[in-house]
Design a protein that fits this description.
It is a single chain. By secondary structure, this protein is of the alpha/beta class. The protein contains eleven helices and 16 strands. Strands 1, 2, 3, 4, 5, 6, 7, 8, 9 and 10 form a ten-stranded mixed beta sheet that branches. Helix 5 packs across helix 6. It is elongated. The N and C termini lie far apart (49 Å).
């Protein structure tokens, strides 16, 4: 069995080979690696045993994925119930969880999985339009089709209207009857639907400028901030004042720049230390007292731009 580090290296090699820009690997946080190809961003976490993830880390991972418009995915090899199967989507805290081979098939061959593992077994989502077209073409009632598939009329109605998933055995029977594919793919690479981000007021002066601020505990940066009223502006990725010395800040600048480039965020330091100049490396520094004086986000972004260019 591969080690977790070997799995991460395989994932990084796979993504780079298919044209993704990847971040460095961050094994101790709520994610391990971020990858981007055009507008598609992946936020990935790897475990040998997928039951190792805890609710707090999963929550932070989902919140960050929401802000970065990224798809969060957990890659693993086994769970408490045994080895994970290729081509099957598992879930941990509502984050899709798959094997490396499943990821590989998605990235290289465009083959999305169809099967979802849940309590009670394996399930698939039925394409209700296929059922409707078949019934219309052959003038077949729901009751007659349900009888052939060995399910109730009410269940067949739910399949046709996308209300419930079917077990894999029923899906196979339907495909034999209809002589065509009836299952829908699970597209894990599409941009996920927005879920509400729980913003904090840890950086109140950013909040006053219209930003929602998400403070992080298990990421290589302190916070991300996103305009609440618009998606036009890139999120800010920030390290904030925590009485750190310049040597520590320079060390923190490396992952900040790396991750901001992959997520297309604006990196920034927000600190009090007057000894620190207007930038650390190429990352702009905004003093806390300067932040208080801005009247709107445009003034902040203008200063960030100016200090980045200098």
């Amino acid at each position: 069995m591969l080690t977790r580090s070997q799995m991460l290296q395989n994932i990084e090699n796979l993504l780079k080979s298919q044209g993704f820009k990847t971040s460095d690997i961050y094994e101790q946080g709520s994610f391990d690696i971020v990858a981007r190809k055009n507008l598609q961003i992946l936020l990935l976490k790897t475990f040998l045993n997928i039951d190792s993830i805890n609710e707090h880390n999963a929550h932070e991972m989902k919140q960050l994925a929401n802000i970065f418009l990224a798809s969060p995915i957990i890659i693993g090899e086994k769970s408490r119930n045994g080895i994970l199967e290729d081509g099957v989507v598992y879930e941990r805290y509502e984050i899709p969880t798959i094997t490396f081979e499943t990821l590989k098939n998605m990235i290289i061959y465009g083959e999305s999985p169809e099967i979802l593992a849940d309590r009670g077994g394996y399930f698939v989502k039925i394409d209700g339009n296929v059922i409707k077209q078949y019934r219309e073409e052959y003038s077949m009632s729901l009751k007659d089709l349900a009888s052939l598939a060995h399910v109730s009329r009410a269940t067949m109605y739910k399949y046709e209207n996308g209300i419930v998933r079917a077990n894999t055995e029923t899906a196979m029977i339907l495909e034999e009857i209809l002589n065509t594919k009836v299952t829908l793919d699970i597209d894990l690479l599409k941009q996920p639907q927005n879920e509400e981000v729980k913003y904090s007021d840890d950086v109140k002066d950013l909040s006053k400028l219209g930003y929602g601020v998400l403070s992080t505990n298990k990421s290589p940066f302190d916070a991300v901030a996103k305009m609440k009223t618009s998606d036009k502006h890139s999120p800010l990725m920030a390290n904030v004042e925590k009485n750190r010395n310049e040597k520590t800040l320079k060390r923190m600048a490396i992952p900040l720049k790396d991750l901001s480039m992959v997520t297309t965020s604006e990196p920034v330091f927000i600190i009090n230390n007057d000894k620190i100049k207007e930038s650390i490396g190429t990352i702009p520094v905004i003093k806390s007292w300067e932040l208080k004086e801005f009247e709107n986000s445009k003034e902040l972004l203008k200063m960030i731009r100016e200090r980045k260019e200098n």
